[in-house]
Specification:
The structure holds two protein chains of two kinds. Chain A is an alpha/beta fold. Chain A is elongated. By secondary structure, chain B is mainly alpha-helical. Classes of the chains: A alpha/beta, B mainly alpha.
Chain lengths: 331, 250
């Protein structure tokens, strides 16, 4: 393909992020930071990249921004790989908020935003600053003199200055107090609306508030890649049923219906998938048994629970796999 | 190209605002390339006027590059000036380059630049380019003054005087390239300083050895310039191909 054709292809209906079997090693003998990671973020979707410390999240983001090269595999951004003819065009469609960056003492906030505009070759500094609430007074100050919350707004303004099609956020609220974190999340919700976004975070509440899809990394591998709604639909909900006769009786009646119910305070609790379909006959059966049901609440699992389930499933699978690999081998 | 120009502008602004970098870029070369050579030349002129008396024993055989030093003060002038030019070229950009690169990593401001659509290579090239340009401008002006005085005193040929400029530029290139390598290898500014000292010390000894024991005059100066150039290419190769910029982002 000619260079021009490659450049022309950027903007065609290619996925904003397409990671295929990416392996990254720092040193030939080192454990891979990424070990065959594969996932796609589709246009207009907001995905969160979750994983414990050392899972490879920041390495993956650095590969996506072209700062690091994968050892093997491919990470495409709008169809282009770093170093290709189309990369410069693709990369300029991406705004990045780095994880807890340092701030220059000898550059003002305005000078930094001017630098960003110069590099992207587009954008309006005043407009971007205004959107994030940065006043002229803030812009005149040295970057390092701004408080943590304002520094984060500044990095957000820099990421959004070029009106990017894809926003990559690497732990945008880490190190902020709860009030500032809340403000930043509210700004992010507004900023990522209508855009494709990849949010790398430890904060599951933040991910839940901002994202549609979830990608869970563990030991450099993708162990879960799905939409949060779909995961919730598949995962059982927590059901709490209250009856006037007491939680013990309710739990006993539910057990007779084949449910693994336990009394918890004045309610009987159990897990049920597809609660909309399953709960009405259960409640009806309890009423038929003479119990006075006054409450039935189904709570979908939180993202934290889904995340822990995914990590647990992966942990359970790993020893089994290694046992299976060991079977049949001479001792 | 516009992105690179923007980076160059940023580095220039920051360098001009950095008091420590400016102090390094002016005080150190002033000492090595103005004060030391001009006072040496003044001393030699004074000695010549009073009559040159050799204190060396008659059996002493000077090294090849210093033959005639017992009867001609200009031999010492040329040797010392070439040595000081080498030292000035080696020391001036190394400190500033290591400082700006290592502090960028230590203060995590490199993360801000890595988030932009520029490569780490462009970021570091802009940094080193500005430091090299500023060091070259300042030191060349000083060496030009030394050369003018040397020629006025008829202590060197025009060929020798001109050969000091490629020597200076090659020393600056080697210093900048080794500073890049050190910045990639060093964990912090203190380690960078220790590594810089460990590298520049032996290099200075080699430079003086080449000037003292090499062929006298212009050839030894050009040989030394060539050694610096090869060493700069080697340091650059190791930095780019063996150590690589990825080390900064680990």
């Amino acid at each position: 393909m000619s260079e021009q054709a490659a450049v022309d292809r950027v903007g065609e209906a290619t996925e904003p992020i397409d990671v295929r079997a990416v392996v990254k090693r720092f040193g030939a003998l080192a454990r891979p930071a990424l070990d065959g990671a594969t996932f796609v973020v589709r246009s207009g979707r907001r995905a969160c990249l979750l994983g414990p410390n050392g899972a490879g999240k920041t390495t993956l983001i650095r590969i996506l921004t072209g700062a690091l090269a994968p050892t093997s595999g491919e990470a495409r951004v709008f169809g282009a790989t770093p170093g290709s003819a189309a990369w410069n065009v693709s990369r300029r469609r991406v705004g990045v908020v780095p994880q807890l960056p340092g701030m220059y003492r000898d550059l003002t906030a305005r000078e930094y935003l001017e630098l960003v505009r110069g590099v992207y070759e587009r954008g309006d500094v005043d407009e971007a600053a205004k959107k994030l609430g940065l006043t002229r007074k803030h812009l005149r100050r040295s970057m390092a003199e701004l408080s943590g919350g304002w520094q984060r707004r500044l990095t957000l303004a820099a990421a959004l200055l070029c009106e990017p099609d894809l926003v990559v956020l690497d732990e945008p609220t880490v190190g902020l107090d709860p009030v500032a974190a809340r403000e930043v999340i509210a700004m992010l919700r507004e900023a990522t609306a209508g855009r494709t976004a990849l949010l790398c975070t430890h904060n599951l509440a933040e991910a839940e508030a901002l994202c549609d899809d979830v990608v869970v990394l563990r030991d450099g591998k993708v162990v879960l890649d799905d939409s949060i709604d779909e995961l919730r639909r598949r995962a059982p909900a927590h059901v709490a049923i209250g009856v006037r006769e007491g939680a013990a009786l309710a739990a006993s009646a539910l057990s007779e219906l084949g449910l693994d119910a336990k009394p918890d305070g004045d309610r009987a609790v159990f897990l049920a998938s597809d609660p909309e379909a399953r709960l009405p006959p259960i409640v009806k059966a309890l009423v038929e048994r003479g119990l006075s049901v006054f409450e039935c609440i189904a709570t979908p699992p939180t993202l934290e629970e889904l995340f822990l389930q995914a990590v647990q499933r992966d942990q359970d699978r790993a020893p089994k796999a290694s046992v299976a690999e060991g079977e049949g081998q001479p001792s | 190209m516009s992105a690179f120009r923007t980076l160059l502008r940023k580095e220039t602004v920051q360098l001009l605002r950095s008091k420590s970098a400016l102090a390094t870029a002016t005080l150190l070369p002033s000492l090595l390339l103005l004060f030391a050579p001009l006072s040496l030349l003044a001393t030699l002129v004074d000695v010549d006027q009073k009559g040159w008396v050799s204190v060396l024993p008659s059996t002493f055989q000077p090294p090849r590059g210093l033959v005639g030093m017992d009867r001609d003060s200009s031999v010492i002038a040329r040797f010392m000036l070439a040595s000081l030019v080498s030292m000035g070229g080696l020391v001036v950009p190394a400190v500033a380059a290591s400082y700006t690169m290592v502090s960028e990593r230590e203060s995590r401001t490199l993360e801000l630049l890595a988030a932009l659509p520029v490569t780490i290579r462009q970021v570091l090239t802009a940094k080193l380019g500005v430091i090299l340009a500023m060091s070259t401008a300042v030191t060349s002006a000083m060496v030009a003054l030394d050369v003018a005085v040397l020629l006025r005193l008829q202590m060197a040929s025009i060929g020798f005087a001109l050969s000091l400029f490629p020597l200076l530029v090659c020393a600056l290139l080697y210093s900048t390239a080794s500073a890049l390598l050190i910045s990639l290898l060093a964990r912090d500014f203190r380690t960078a300083n220790q590594m810089g000292g460990a590298l520049l010390g032996p290099t200075t000894v080699v430079a003086v050895w080449v000037l003292a024991f090499g062929p006298p005059g212009v050839p030894s100066v050009l040989v030394l310039a060539a050694i610096f150039l090869v060493a700069a290419a080697l340091a650059l190769y190791v930095a780019l191909r063996v150590v690589t910029f990825e080390r900064l982002l680990r």
